[in-house]
Amino acid sequence: MGVNKRVAAIQPNAIRAFDDQTSDVEDILKLTLGEPDFSVPQHVKQAAIDSISSDDSHYAPSKGSVALRKAIRHFMIDRYDLSYDAETEIVVTLGATEGIYDTLTAFINDGDKVLLPAPNFSMYDQTIALAGGDVVYVDTSKSDFLLTPEQLQAAVDQYGDQLTTVLLNYPSNPTGVTYTAEQLAALADILRGTDITVIADEIYSELTYDVEHYSIAKLLPEQTVILNGVSKSHAMTGYRIGFIVGPAELIAPAATLHQFTVTSASNPAMAAAAEALGSAQGKLDSKRMRDAYRERRDYLVPALRQLGFEIPQPNGAFYVFAKLPANVDQDDYAFGIDLAKRGKVAVIPGSIFNIGGEGYIRISYAASMETLHEAVKRIGTFLANY
C-alpha cells in the first residue's frame, strides 16, 4: 500500500506519548501538558452559546469570521502596537498548531534549512520534516536558552541562501524564557535585508511576568509572520482557535493552504474568541490568569531550587525547565519514569525537546497551588529516598 514516505517517517508527539505512558499510575499528579486549569470565562462561553442560538451555522469566510479578524486586529494594536489589515493580513486557524503547519508547509521547499533554537517544542521538527525542510538546531543551553547574535550570524554565514526560515518561540516552551526588545533588535540587525522569513510563535505572549512582551515583527515587519491564539491566554485549548498575522504576501500562501486543509474554523468557537480578544472583559480575564501563574511560578521556582534543581528564571509561559540535582545518576527520561511510578508526579523529560534539553525536566505550573504544593512535597520525598 502506498504511504507518503515523509508521513511514515514522522514519530508521534513525544510529549503526548510520555503523558500517556504515565497517566495510568494510580494517584498521579500530572504536571505534563500545557493545559490551563482555568475555566473559560462565562461571557466568552455565552458568546458561543449566542452564536448557536442565532443559527450562525453557515460557512464562514475561509480566513475567519469578519468579527474575529477585527477583534484580532484590535488585540494586536492594543497589546503590541502592531497593525494588520483584517482582510489581507490575518488568517484564523484551528489553534496555533495549524498555524505551525500552514506556515512551515507554505514557506519551505525541499532541502531548505530552517533554524530552530533548541531545546524546542517538539512539534516543530516533525512539521519541518513533513514539509521537506532540514532543521538546523542551535544549542542555546549555554546562553541562558536564548539564541545569540553570534549563533545566528554563524548559521547565516554557514548556510547562505539555503537558510530560508528562522523559527522563534517566545516566551519559550519548554524553558519559559523570553527575549527583551534589545535582544531581539540584535537578531533583527542580522536578518534585516536578507530573504529569510521569521516565524514568531508567540502563543504565550500574554503570559509574561518580568518583562513586557515585544515582538520581532516590530523590527522586521516585512519578514515576520506571527502565530498566536486564545488557547493559553484565555484557557480555551478545546476551542481550537489560533491565528496567523503578517504581511499580505506571506499570509496569502498560508491562507491558501489553510483553505484547502480545513476550509474554516467553527462559527461558535470564533464568536467566543472574538469576545475574548475584542472585549475589555477579555483583557481582564487574561490578566487575572497571568497574575495567578505568576504567583505559582514565584512559589515553585524557589521551592524546586531548595531541592537541588538548577532553573533558568522563567519570565513567561507556565513552565519550569529544571536541571536534575547533582546526585541524580539517571538520564532525564529514566528519572521521569521513576518519578512518575515511585514519586507519583508526572513531568516531561527534557531530552524530548532535543539538544540542550538532556538532564532537564519540564514542569508545567498550569495547575492549582494546592497541586503544586503537593507535587513539591512528593518530589522532595522521592529525592530524599533516591
Automatic annotation (TrEMBL):
Bilayer-crossing regions: none
GO terms under biological process: amino acid metabolic process
GO molecular function: pyridoxal phosphate binding; transaminase activity
Enzyme Commission number(s): 2.6.1.-
Keyword Transferase: yes
Keyword match DNA-binding: no
InterPro entries listed in its UniProt record: Aminotransferase_I/II_large (IPR004839), AspAT/PAT-like (IPR050596), NHTrfase_class1_PyrdxlP-BS (IPR004838), PyrdxlP-dep_Trfase (IPR015424), PyrdxlP-dep_Trfase_major (IPR015421), PyrdxlP-dep_Trfase_small (IPR015422)
Domain Aminotransferase class I/classII large, chain residue ranges per copy: 27-379
Domain of life: Bacteria
Cofactor field: pyridoxal 5'-phosphate
Key words, A-Z: Aminotransferase, Pyridoxal phosphate, Transferase
Family of the protein in this entry: Belongs to the class-I pyridoxal-phosphate-dependent aminotransferase family.
UniProt-recorded name of the protein: Aminotransferase
